[in-house]
Amino acid sequence: MTTSAFISVVLIHLLAAISPGPSFVVSVRTAASEGFHVATALALGFGLGAVIWASAAMAGLALLFEIVPQLFTGLKVIGGMVLIYIAVMMWRHAATPLPQASLNAAPRSAASAIRFGLLTFMVNPKPAVFFGAVFVGLIPSETSLATHAALLLAIFLNETLWYVVVARVFSLPRARAAYIGLKSSVDRTFGALIAIFGLKIALS
């Protein structure tokens, strides 16, 4: 695999990573409501999820979906339902005040945030489509094991660092204060967006 081809794959994944989707909505909400450190842990969960999907793609995910299309359909339905569940929880607790607003303490541990980020990423079929249909088509069959490992590292950094940037921006005092003041409306809006993503995924 040439250097230019390697860079092209990394850049294409970066564009896919920064495109709006459920992960972005969850990241913004987490950064504004729970702070930078929790949102950074969430970003690590996203990065781990990206590595898992990329590894699965390299191991033949696209071929598996082609052989057993029902598996991909089931993945979409289950993923859509989980996203809808997350949306319902956000809607139900939209009017609940932030417990850390006066204590300035994150209510969720780093480990919990990583697990939630990983779950959110893994149940979202968008990465499955990208890695299973686009990503594998960009990698020559003769690519070495070392290059595969380098690609996985680049994918982890792309996904994680992008959401660390999102975490930094939306955890700043002004963004945080704006979120606290508009929490009910913002949470319901974000919940509706995630529900729409979930319905679109489950029914597509």
List keywords for this structure.
204 residues, 0% strand, mainly alpha, globular, single chain
Topology:
Blueprint: H1 3-18, H2 22-34, H3 36-58, H4 61-67, H5 69-92, H6 110-122, H7 125-135, H8 145-170, H9 173-181, H10 183-203
Helix pairs in contact: 1-8, 2-3, 2-8, 2-9, 2-10, 3-6, 3-7, 3-8, 4-5, 4-7, 5-10
Give a description of the structure:
The chain has one domain (3-203). Helix content is 80%, strand content 0%. The chain contains 10 helices and no strands. The chain has helices at residues 3-18, 22-34, 36-58, 61-67, 69-92, 110-122, 125-135, 145-170, 173-181, 183-203. The model is unreliable at 100-106 (pLDDT under 50).
* Residue runs with pLDDT of under 50 for 5 or more positions: 100-106
Question: How many runs of DSSP E, i.e. beta strands?
Answer: 0
How large a portion of the residues is in β-strands, by DSSP E?
under 5%
Q: How far from one another are the termini?
A: 35 Å
Q: Tell me the series of helices and strands, N- to C-terminal.
A: HHHHHHHHHH
Coarse shape:
globular
Total number of domains: 1
Helix content: over 70%
Q: Which structural class best describes the helix and strand composition?
A: mainly alpha
| Count of helical regions | 10
Mean pLDDT: 80
Largest sheet: none
